[in-house]
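Retry 2 of 3 after timeout on previous attempt. Resubmitting structure tokens to design endpoint.
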């Protein structure tokens, strides 16, 4: 009779287990443990009952359930971003600057402005080159012309430039004891230059700046002077005022023997033995009644005194 009671109890336990599974653990006497997998779930239910025994009895039932979880989806593969290479831009090609050829400027006589007068091709260029080289006046111009006396005046200055004459926009540049520009050339009957205009800080037309006196013998109307011993006669041939107010007097010399020097106490006198001229330079035109006394030295060493009186 005790065994039948035990069997009845066992049957009840089974029924109770099934009902507990259906109620999903609503009974206070059942404890459920759930284990989940990818496709099935196993639920273990343990029930303990004590009926007339001191030893609990435990029955375990395994129930397999089908899971409805969606299958795992593989992560999407994202292609790496491809950056197109930047287009290659050729650097701009710059053409070399075009330089305009230098402009050649010609002077009034066909020479290139700024160039030295190396081979004179005109009377004007030849005159400028000869003046710059301080050639004798007789090789520069015809006698008794303003150009001739200008050349003699330069030669009596005593200094020969080291550089040649150059071409200017108006004519030619020379060194005439300072920069001077020669222009407005006048040609004589034989084709040589007889006069021109010289410009420094001021311009001077030689035809008016140089007063020419005739070559004459001593007399009332002749500006001629004799030495104290009569060995030399000096004749005033030109008064040069190209550097006004400075005045330079040019005298020709005639002597009984060669003259090697003409001097004065103030060192204002210069002598040119080639053309046989001497000059006296004064700060201004000499006042009437004044005089200059010069000493003439001859080749044999003898001397004479010459007194020039201004009227």
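Retry 2 succeeded. Sequence:
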């Amino acid at each position: 009779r005790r065994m039948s009671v035990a069997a009845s109890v066992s049957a009840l336990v089974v029924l109770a287990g099934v009902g507990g599974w259906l109620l999903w653990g609503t009974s206070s006497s059942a404890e459920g443990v759930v284990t989940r997998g990818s496709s099935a779930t196993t639920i273990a239910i343990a029930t303990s009952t004590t009926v007339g025994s001191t030893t609990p009895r435990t029955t375990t039932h395994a129930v397999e359930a089908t899971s409805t979880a969606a299958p795992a989806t593989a992560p999407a593969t994202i292609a790496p971003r491809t950056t197109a290479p930047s287009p290659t831009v050729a650097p701009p090609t710059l053409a070399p600057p075009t330089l305009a050829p230098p402009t050649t400027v010609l002077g009034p006589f066909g020479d290139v402005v700024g160039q030295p007068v190396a081979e004179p091709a005109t009377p004007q260029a030849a005159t400028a080159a000869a003046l710059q080289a301080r050639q004798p006046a007789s090789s520069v111009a015809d006698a008794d012309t303003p150009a001739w006396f200008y050349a003699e005046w330069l030669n009596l200055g005593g200094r020969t430039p080291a550089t040649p004459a150059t071409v200017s926009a108006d004519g030619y540049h020379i060194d005439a004891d300072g920069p001077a520009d020669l222009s407005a050339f006048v040609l004589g009957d034989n084709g040589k230059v007889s006069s021109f205009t010289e410009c420094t800080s001021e311009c001077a037309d030689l035809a008016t700046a140089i007063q020419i006196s005739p070559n004459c013998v001593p007399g009332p109307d002749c500006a001629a002077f004799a030495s104290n011993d009569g060995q030399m006669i000096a004749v005033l041939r030109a008064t040069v005022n190209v550097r006004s107010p400075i005045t330079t007097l040019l005298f020709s010399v005639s002597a009984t023997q060669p003259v090697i020097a003409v001097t004065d106490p103030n060192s204002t006198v210069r002598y040119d033995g080639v053309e046989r001229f001497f000059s006296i330079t004064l700060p201004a035109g000499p006042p009437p009644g004044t005089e200059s006394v010069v000493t003439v030295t001859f080749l044999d060493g003898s001397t004479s005194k010459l007194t020039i009186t201004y009227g």
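Attempt log closed. The mean pLDDT is 80.
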